[in-house]
Amino acid sequence: MPLVSTAETPELAEAVRADGMFFVDGKNVKLRAYEIEENIYVNLFEVALALNDTEKQYSLAWRMGGQALRIIGGMQYRAIAVSLARANINRSDAIQTKTAVFLFNEEIEVTSYKVGTDTYFNLKEFAKAMDFNIVTCPEEGSVELVTGMPYEEDLIIRRNIDPELPMVALTFDDGPVKYTDQILDILERHDAVATFYVIGSQVNTWKDTMLRAVEMGCEIGNHTMNHRNLRKQNDDGIRRQIVDANDAIEAITGVKPLTMRPPWGEMNDTSRAAMGWLGMPIVTWSIDPLDWLTKDAYTTHSRVMEAVRDGDIILLHDTHSSTVTATSLIVSSLLNRGYQLVTVSELFHFKEVDPVAGRTYTAVRG
C-alpha cells in the first residue's frame, strides 16, 4: 500500500487554522489543527501528549533525518528534546510531504502536510490506524477523540445534546421498507434522529434509504438477517443471522452495527451467549405502544406520551403507514415537552453507561 495517494491531491493546498475545541474522552485538550482539503490535520506530537492517560497512549520518534516517523505503542509520550513551534499561523500554504509513518514497524497510510515549520497529519487516517473514533459537533465547532470506540469509516456527527436534560431513543423495527423514507422526512424536518433495527435481507433493496439515514446521523442496528426467532435457532444459526446481517449493513453503509435487537424480543441463554461472543449488547425497549397491532396513529401517540420518561427506548415499526402519522405526532410532542431525541448509542454515551456484550437493555437511565 502506498504511503500517500496523490490522485486528486495537490502538492500545494491552503491551510486554514481550525480553532475549534478538541476533547479526548470528554476531557478538553489543547491541539493546534488546520483544515486542509476539507480534512482536519493535527500535530501527532501534541496528540500523543493528549492521549497519555488513555489505552491508546504512544510515543514518537523521527527517523531517517525526519523523513520517517515511528509510532511506539503503549508508551507515554514525554516531550523530551522535541521543539514544538508555537507559530500562530491562521492561513498559509500547505505543502504535501512524503513522511513515512510506521506503527509497530508496519508502514501505515497517513497523509501529511507542512505548515510553517511543523508537519501535520490527517486526523481521520491516524484514528483509523490507531483504532479510535472521531466525533464532531458542528454546532459547537468541537472534535472529540473517543479512544474506547472502534473506528468507523464515516465520522459520527454528534448534535448539541445537553446531558442534563431528558432524552429518549426512538427505534424502528423490521425495515427498511417504503415507509422508512417518510419517517426520515419527519426526523429531518425536526433535526432529529432515530435508531433503525433493520433486517439484513432487505437493506440491499433500499440502499439509498440506508445511506440517507446514516448521513442524517441516525443509527443502524442489527435485527437479524431474516427476522428469525433466535430462541428457535441453534448456536450456529444464531451467529449466522447476526453476522450475515452485520455484513450486509456494513457493505451498504460502511458502518457496522453496535447493538442488536432480537425479533419479538425473543432471547434465551444460547442467544445471549452468542451475542456476548459476537461483542454485541442486546437492546429491547421500555415502551411498546403496539403500533403494529392497533395501526392507529392516535392510540400509538397517546400510549407513548402517557408512559414516556427520561432514558426510555421506544419501540415502533416503520412497516405501517399509521406509524408514519404517529411518528409525526410523537416527535412534535416529545420535543414540545423538552425531550431530546438521540440514537441508542448516544443514549448510552450521554447517560454514561458502558453497554456490555450479551446483556439486555430495556432503557438507559444512567
Report what the structure shows.
The protein is α/β, with parallel strands linked by helices and 366 residues long. It contains ten helices and 22 strands. β9 and β10 (106-108) form a beta hairpin. α8 runs parallel beside α9 (321-336). The two termini are 44 Å apart. The model is unreliable at 1-10 and 81-86 (pLDDT under 50).
Question: Quick one: how many beta strands?
Answer: 22
Structural class: alpha/beta
In DSSP terms (H or I, runs of 4 or more residues), the helix count works out at: 10
Flag low-confidence runs.
Answer: 1-10, 81-86
Largest sheet, spatial ordering of strands: 1-4-5-12-11-8
Rg, Cα atoms, Å? 23 Å
Which word captures the global form? globular
Report the span from N to C terminus: 44 Å
Strand content: 25-35%
What summary fits the major beta sheet?
Answer: 6 strands, antiparallel, barrel
Mean pLDDT: 88
Helicity level = 25-40%
Helix/strand layout:
Blueprint: E1 12-17, E2 21-24, E3 27-29, E4 33-36, E5 39-42, H1 44-50, E6 58-63, E7 68-73, E8 91-96, E9 100-103, E10 106-108, E11 112-115, E12 118-122, H2 123-130, E13 133-137, E14 142-146, E15 156-157, E16 167-173, H3 180-189, E17 195-198, H4 207-215, E18 219-222, H5 235-253, H6 269-278, E19 282-283, H7 291-294, H8 297-307, E20 313-317, H9 321-336, E21 340-341, H10 344-350, E22 360-361
Parallel strand pairs: 2-14, 7-9, 13-15, 16-17, 16-20, 16-21, 17-18, 19-22
Antiparallel strand pairs: 1-4, 1-8, 2-3, 4-5, 5-12, 6-7, 8-11, 9-10, 11-12, 13-14
Helix pairs in contact: 3-9, 5-6, 8-9
